Every structure is written in structure tokens, then in C-alpha cells.
Amino acid sequence: MKRDASQFGRRIIVSTLTLALSVCLGWYQYRGPAPLAADAPVDQPSAARMRATLVELLGDPPQKHTTGTAAGEAFLERLEQKLDSYGVSTRRIEIPFDPERQDRHPKGRIDLLPPDTVLKNLWVTIEGSDPSLAPILVATHHDSCRWGPGAGDAGSAVVALVEHIRVLANSPPVHTTHYLFTDGEEFGLLGAYAIAAQDSLPFPTPMFVLNFDARGSSGGIPMFETHSGNHAWVSVLIDDLAPPKITSSLAVTVYRMLPNATDFNAWHGKLGLPGFNYAVIGGAHRYHQMDDTPDNLSDRTLQHMGAHLFSMHRAVDRLPADVVQRVQQASTQPDADNAVFFDLYGLTVIQFSERVQQVLALIAVVLIGVVCLRLRHPWRRLPRHVLNTLWAILIGLAVGLAIRFALLTTPWNAVKYTPIDLPAGLFTIAASFLAATFLLEWLVSRASAEEFKLVSDWIWLVTAALGTVLAFLLPGGGYLLVLPSLAYGLVRSVTANINLAAWSGWIVAIVLDGPLLVLLVQALGPWRQPLYAVLASLLAVLAMTTWSTQIRKKARPIPKNRPRLARGDA
């Protein structure tokens, strides 16, 4: 059967455009909010005011301020003076670094500490209108790395806290709010762990922690980590993230697989406090570099950092007492459930429990499985299409490896992050998706419409089965397969229109995956092209199921007993 060129072009264009539109919309939304000028209302965070504060603290030209150095002490003094100007009292929690006392001191980094280092943590308290309520803790670190001034890491977070203190100093919250600017984070979270190692915290146990950090200098800021047994807290707070609301429970899973760490490890991991952890991840090529300066820090990033703090603190501070009691009781149960959550292009956040996800996964498998059994799909044609899928993955992987090899020939081959991380990653996804799509179109060009329906049902059944496995073993990311296969199963079980079912599953898949691919590329950097390529190839396999109505039926064979026309007969 010859391929129809017009149908072939439509398949490629429609499949690619739907994915590209989702990715581009995710990128556009995830840039961060429009920055506010210095004349913004005094009760709102302003990127312009935060930038002015950052320049004031870092100096001109911006200076490094490493733990245990004179420059570090000078930075801390300027920070204290700035906070004193708002009429708040600042206190230091000075703890001599003692590797025998605290249980986290990474070898290699602590060897670079100046002798007899004293960790100088800064503590600020804004008294609440109801002192009987448990306080809120807001935290970041004030020290820079040894190579750069740290405008992004974590100057952006420092000035967000300063901006918030400026407002609360004149408009006290309901809950007493403590701010901690820790020291020694760049040497291995030393200040936070030194505080956690004390016999007791210098203030009552916080009800919730908001921790801020940075691993870059541009783009919106995801809430990328939360505590275990988090469903109760997530259900009442997650939609109060500042727009764009960038988050995913998969980010929690991926982050905990990486060697990175923030002070949140001490607040949650050591002290068991509930909370949310935020960090900028765009522009990571300036992370721990000399050019991590105010000039290279995005105003959108500053605005989003401040907006997150203002919005989430307000949400926690205004929770009714009965809601707080209910949430705390649910969170402290031995079998406290975790939440599955994700944003929709930064507009809103969807959340449900892991148990609900497991039920949805099983429903998807049953719905599609019943369709396959009811239609008595034969098995004999499946091995060829399984092989087609493997070929598609291999061709995508080959494209990813080729792009990675090309990047290794550039001057960036020795660095962890590059200025083209995001473009290179998204180009890899596009090229791999197209290569896999072209190959699949060629491989399935001889399939009949009926055979293609068989393939579509089985592809989505396997997707549902894998989603079920993830729902139980890697629940933070299970929704990426569970929800698309559930959409397919629901539509397929009530209609014979397989194309409608396939498009339902595909649209849900790209709505979930498009924006997340942007975050994934930013988080993992430039040297994961093979991984991006495999993911793109798998998406191409799902996209292929939407072609079913474009597959032509095979020509009906001529009956053997039909008389042949003699030559010359009409």
C-alpha cells in the first residue's frame, strides 16, 4: 500500500505542533511574573526595591561574602543595619563549627573553612498578634560560595526576606514569624545543621517552614520539595503558590535522587518540620560563578521569589485554628498519606492523594483491558508493533546521543551547566520526536485500520499498566501515565470512536508533559540528551495512536472465481 503524502504530512504536523504548543506555553508561563517598579504599593513585593537592596548589600562592585571571612562579616553587618532601619531587632546565633557535634559535615568542603570558624546565623522575629499560636519559620542562607558574589544564590532569597520583613514590621501577622539567615550553607548546610544540633531551638517549634534558595539566576521559581506525609498540608496550601504556580510532586522525587541539598534538609530531615522548599533553577550556568551578579539576575526571578513568600506566608498565617489542628493531626499519623500534585501551565494546581492515584491507575487498566478482551484482539500481530516501538526508541536515542556528542565538542564540554541548557534540551526533544515519528509512520504505513485499532488499544493498555507500577513504586510521577491512560480508557469504553479516545489520552499527556519537560531540562542540565530523547520517542508512540482514522483500509482482494475480462473487452 502506497503512503498518502498529504496524510503523512498532516500526521507529522499535527503531532509535532500539539506537543510544541504545550512546551512553548509552559516555557512562556514559567518565565515568572512581570516585575513591579519601586513605586509599587508598599504592601506588595517589588523587584525594583529588592534589586536596590541587593546592590546595597553586595556592594559596588559586588563582593563575595564567604563564611568565616572579613567580607562575610561585612555583608552580615550591612544586612543587620538594613533590618535595623525597619525597627526590628536582630540577634545572632553564633556557633563555633564543631564536626564532632553536628552530623553533617561534607569532607572536602569543610577542609576549605578558615581555621576556628564561627557560624554566624542571623535571627529576626516579628511578633504576632496571637502569641499563643505556633510560629512560622522563614529561612534562607546569607553566605556566598567562594567563587562569586552570589546575587542569585542566595542573594535573591535574602532580599525577598528583607522585603517581607519591611512589610510585616508595619503590619504584624497573626502568627509570630521567625526569619533565619543561616551561615555556612555553601560548605554543606553547616549553619542550619548547627542550629538543629542544639539541645533545643531558640524559639518554639514552628508550625510550618518556608525555605528559599537558588541554583540559577533567571526564570520562575518552582516549589520543588516538601515534607513526607504532606497530603493534609498540600491540600490546604498548594493553590496559594504565587502565579505562575510552578510545582510537581515528580520534582520532589527527582530532587531527592540528585546530590543537591538545601537547608530544608535540616528543617525537615533533621527536625521533622512540615514545609515547602523553593529555588530558582533557570540560568544555572551562573550558579557558583563569578558572574552571579545583580546585573545578571532576572527581575522576574526577584519578583517571583518575593511573591511566593508574601502569598504563602499570608496563606499559612490566616489558616483557621480548626483547620490547623486538623492538618497537624492528619500529618502526624503513622500512615499519613503523601500528595500527588502538579500545575497546569502555572494557572492552577491539581492535587490528590497517592491512594486516589492508585485507584485511578487500576481503573484505567481495567477499562482498557475490558475493551481488549471484549473485542478479542489477537496477539499474533503484536510482536511486530512491539518491535516498531523499540525501533522508535532506538532512533530517538541515537539522535540524543548525536546531539550530546556535538555539545561535547564545544568549549562547554567541561562545565556542568551551559548558557544553552534549555534550547539544547528542547531541540533534542523536538529532533528525537520528529525522528521517531517519521520512522513510525514508515513502519506502520502498511497497517490496516483494524490492525491499527488493535495497536492503539494495546499501547494504551501498556501505558496504563506502567502507570499503575509508578503509582505504587514512584507515586510522585505516576500521574504522567495514569491520567492520560484513564482519559483514553473512559472514552474508549463508551464509544467505538478510537480516534476520539486516542486524542483524549494524547491531549492529557501533552498538557501534563509539555511544561514539565521545560522544568526537567532546566533541572538536569545539558548532558542528559539521551534521556530527553527517549522521553520524546515514547511521546511519539502515544502520538501515533491518534493516526487511526488516517490509516487507509486495505484494498479488498479480487475473488478467485471472478472471471477475467478478455483482452479488448469493455
TrEMBL record:
Q: What SUPFAM superfamilies does this protein map onto? A: Zn-dependent exopeptidases (SSF53187)
Start and end residues of each Peptidase M28 domain: 121-308
Where is this chain's protein located in or outside the cell? Vacuole membrane
Keyword check for Transmembrane helix:
yes
Keyword vocabulary terms for this entry:
Glycoprotein, Membrane, Transmembrane, Transmembrane helix, Vacuole
Transmembrane segments in this chain: where? Answer: 12-30, 356-375, 387-406, 426-445, 457-483, 503-524, 531-549
Any one Pfam family here would be Peptidase_M28
Its placement in the membrane is given as: Multi-pass membrane protein
Q: What is its main location?
A: membrane
The free-text function statement in the UniProt record for this protein reads: May be involved in vacuolar sorting and osmoregulation.
State the similarity comment. Answer: Belongs to the peptidase M28 family.
Q: What is this protein called?
A: Vacuolar membrane protease
Question: What is the originating organism of this protein?
Answer: Stieleria magnilauensis
